[in-house]
Amino acid sequence: MTNSWKKYILWFAQEHLDFRVAEFNSIIKLFGLKHRKLNDNTLKPFWIVEFANEESAIKFASRSVSLRSIYELWGHSNNLKSFHEKLQDSIKTKENLMDPYIQKSFKIVVETYNKHISQKEKVEKIETLEYLPFQGEVDLKTPQTEWCYIEFYGLDPTAVPSEPDDILFGRLVANGQRDLIKELSLKKRKFIGNTSMDAQLSLLMVNQALVNNGDLVLDPFVGTGSLLVSAAKFGGYVLGADIDFMMLHGRSRPSRITQKVRERDERVRANLEQYGCGDRYIDVIISDFSNPLWRQGVEFDAIITDPPYGIRESTEKVESKTTSKQNTRSKDMPHYPSTSHYSLQQLYVDLLQFSAHHLKVGGRLVCWLPYHRDDYTSEMIPQHSSLVLVGNSEQPLSGLTSRRLLTYEKRDINAPDSAQLSYQLSNSYDFRDRYFNNAPESRTERRMRKAEQREIGRIEALKRGKVIIDNKEAKNNLNKSRFQ
Ligand SMILES: C[S@@+](CC[C@H](N)C(=O)[O-])C[C@H]1O[C@@H](n2cnc3c(N)ncnc32)[C@H](O)[C@@H]1O
């Protein structure tokens, strides 16, 4: 690729903001893209980035899920007058750059951020650009080139300025991968469960994990395989494991309220086939993560996972301790091993230790850590001397709880031992306990309070002379009488 540095407008969706920079850095690293970032406020939906060539811009767009579109920058200013002056100036000075587009059919799109304008106003804005030397036909359906005029009115909807903070104009180079979010939507997914990860976050995780064509990817808490679907979509060969036999065999209770029983072929494999990447499926196995079955020397390019939090699924491990109880089982009876609670602390210790051993150097572990917001400190993040934390993005779950997407990269050092692992969370911390018991008001208390409120309302209504009808028939008669 030859270098011909140009500036581009990167237009991001204003969603999952805390993941934007992490995803940008990951894709840059994945493809080794040469770039220079020109603006600092990463919360703005429009970034100006210089890429060494257009192929780099297109490569970036081929992976980014946060990106809506990318435009070659032709004009930018903080006020309208200087914007038009600069754009006219750049057309004159960079005349031969405009040449390839002059005869082509075209379309100009107007976008105003944080301010709604009418179609008529949009047309008026296009008319202010009449000095553009386009000679081709206007084609709104299938133009050969598409241009975008953008006015950015800040991020605060309660303080919209009268004049835009930024005015930008550029040529559409490529769209990001937002369409994949719809394509992989859980709504139409063959096999889903209560904790299936939504398509957008799964794709962001796979980008964080730098999954590339031909990579070997493992999800050790695979559930319905949502993360494997996204990894396979970007070319990974995928493997999963889960302790739940019923889930992996598609025998657990259906999660869709409209569905009574699971279809016979509901499986992780069917999900991959649904999206045309069945050839990327290796297998899923029933396995307890606390007792990993992988032999020494097996290496993965990436480990992506959403471990159980104990809220919508149980956190269990197979108990291996021998008890002193007499064994009353006869040979022909099936053996159901007993299980015990798998604490989140222990699970993370195991996960980091496992990743330190089984990731290739430079490979990434991407996983979620849930916590109660009041408890969060940076010391809470599990650390391992063989793994460098390269991403830490928050997704609020409720007023009280959040989870963080943690990205670790395996360092180039010799095999670690457990002494190098540090986990700051005190042993008494249990997210599940905190979630159910330590909220200012427990679920039961809330139910009781609501019932009391309803009772007070009922007594008040009776005092006002309202007739309370418990009997269904009487209620029907009353309704009928209203229409007679
Ligand atoms: C949050 S869910 C993962 C959901 C998954 N990402 C999906 O999209 O369906 C966590 C999974 O971990 C599994 N699990 C719980 N304890 C486990 C253990 N000790 N070993 C392996 N899997 C376990 C649960 O059965 C559950 O399917």
Task: Characterise this structure.
This protein has a seven-stranded mixed sheet with strand order 2-3-1-4-7-6-5. The longest helix has 21 residues. The chain has 14 helices and 18 strands. With 484 residues, the protein is an alpha/beta fold. The protein is 30% helix and 25% strand. The N and C termini lie far apart (81 Å). Helix 1 crosses helix 2. It is globular and about 90 Å long. Bound molecules: S-adenosylmethionine (SAM). The site of S-adenosylmethionine has 23 residues, from helix 8 and strand 12. Its main location: cytoplasm.
List the helices and strands and how they pair.
Elements: E1 6-12, H1 20-31, E2 35-37, E3 46-51, H2 54-63, E4 67-77, H3 80-93, H4 95-102, E5 106-113, H5 119-127, E6 145-152, E7 166-175, H6 178-183, H7 199-208, E8 216-219, H8 226-233, E9 237-242, H9 245-248, H10 268-274, E10 281-286, E11 300-305, E12 316-318, E13 339-341, H11 344-358, E14 359-372, E15 383-384, E16 387-396, E17 401-410, E18 421-422, H12 431-437, H13 443-463, H14 472-483
Helix pairs in contact: 1-2, 3-4, 7-8
Estimate the mean pLDDT confidence. 89
What's the CATH C level of the largest domain?
A: Alpha Beta
User: Which value, in Å, is the CA radius of gyration?
Assistant: 28 Å
Give the total of beta strands. Answer: 18
CATH topology of the largest domain: Rossmann fold
* Helix count from the secondary structure assignment: 14
Q: Provide the low-confidence segments as ranges.
A: none
Shape from CA axes? globular
Biggest sheet, strands in spatial order? 2-3-1-4-7-6-5
Subcellular location: Cytoplasm
GO molecular function: tRNA (guanine(10)-N2)-methyltransferase activity; tRNA binding
Pfam family, one: UPF0020
EC number: 2.1.1.214
